[in-house]
Here is the input.
Amino acid sequence: SELNILGDGLDVVIHTDDAALSSMVDVVTQMHTRSGLIEEVRTSTVDLATAEDMVLTYIRDHVKQAKTAPLAGNSIATDRGFIA
Here is the structure.
């Protein structure tokens, strides 16, 4: 009841070509085919640079002091390693 919702979050699907998709192992291809992610990345018009701009803009809108954005979620260790 005392939560202050700052935004709806941001979902970005980055375009991926078939060459990259074909390098996935079968179990991953099947999983992402079932979820619809493969079709989403094929049809997305967002490139990596645009996605980066979108995410940084979102963070800057909600975190006013640099390097203080809280990381949360079930893949925090992976996220932290990727960002660092």
Notes: The radius of gyration is 16 Å. The mean pLDDT is 89. The longest helix spans residues 48-62. The chain has one domain: 9-69.
